[in-house]
User: What shape does this take?
Amino acid sequence: MLSRLTQRRQFGDLTEQEVLALAIGAEEEDARLYRIYAEGLRTDFPDSAALLDGMAAEEDTHRRRLIERFKQRFGTVIPPINRSQIAGYPARRPYWQIQAQGLERIRAEVGLMERDSARFYTAAAGRSRDADTRKLLGDLAEAEAGHQRAAHDLTDQHLDPETRATEDAVNRRQFILTWVQPSLAGLMDGSVSTLAPIFATAFATQDTWTTFLVGFAASVGAGISMGFTEAASDDGELSGRGSPIKRGFASGVMTTVGGLGHALPYLITDFWTATSIAILVVFVELWAIAWLQNRYMQTPFFRAALQVVVGGALVFGAGVLIGSG
Assistant: This one.
């Protein structure tokens, strides 16, 4: 890490030729990023994709102007300089990480890209003491400011309040289908399905360590099963539920969490203390699931409570009866 840091150059050490080459490379990279984000949004969010297409076209215009200036002053060979080689230059986040977080994260990233570039060029122009370099950096800062104005114009053109509200609604629905719904299903399955084996073992053996091991195994096993089942049940192409890997991960993790919630108290060595805490955890889990169903799935709270709390209580009772017998 230290060797990589010491190899990075300071912006103040660059020649005018290198500064211009750096700007050309930055414009090329930003245009590619805008187009990548646009392609990822085109199916579900065509208006935001159109906005990004327009911004990519603006970056292309800036790049052509910069190349023409470079050719006039320095010839046709552009030095290969990029952001990662310059200390203090705002780095771009990996596009796959941004895309994976959805529409709002992409919008936020685009805003950061615009502000980073404008701030960098303005600060660079202010530090320059050479008249020609100062003018060059000032031109770049002006170009970025123009890009920001163009971006605002494009936003007004493509993302009026009604369109943005529609896209936000689609984005929220996608989030619920891909993450919330599988997570809730997993949490419910993990919380309810493990009640019987955990409490049957607890009351049959009154051994907290054995109970914990049974609960841990049941939780992990249920998580793996639910994760693979969710991932294999629907590829998301026709249903629009999103990536099966994401859904499987969400379902599997939350299934495991749901079971571990009332298994972990049995790490306490005193049986009745552990059991009392486990029962309290079960009570909180079931009511939390009912609230989440009401909050995200618009299930009437009374019906959600009836399905989850009453069902969970029956499974819990069955486990206690079997273990006590």
Notes: The chain has a mean pLDDT of 80. The first strand starts at residue 9 and ends at 10.
